[in-house]
């Protein structure tokens, strides 16, 4: 099992790019990392450390490639008390439900017993052309908390 399991949801690939960059940083620090783009719930260990990275689709919705994962959590209500996680959202503040997907995922994980490590990061693409930059800065702090 990896030290950090990166779980991404994206429509245009931003979350995947962020996850790949952060996984490289983790590995450079001696941690193992597994990056799962839009995984099925069964593909994710129900223990350990997760880092969810998701863009927001449409009107605050979870991206299509991560929707089955979220729906499985909602339907099966697994006990995630053995999971600690971080959360990074990517969105545009001009939309009413800025970073709505990561907020929904964050609430769902907490309701299922998972413990969030540190604060959630919400990246506004209108302020950061390259979401990897604020994510890297946040990750340097977050990784010290695990």
TrEMBL record:
One of its GO terms (cellular component) is cytosol. Pfam families: Flavodoxin_1. It comes from the Bacteria. Keywords: Electron transport, Flavoprotein, FMN, Oxidoreductase, Transport. Its EC number is 1.-.-.-. The keyword Electron transport applies. The keyword Transmembrane does not apply. SUPFAM superfamilies: Flavoproteins. Its cofactor is FMN. Residues 4-143 form the Flavodoxin-like domain. This is MioC family flavoprotein. It comes from Tatumella ptyseos ATCC 33301.
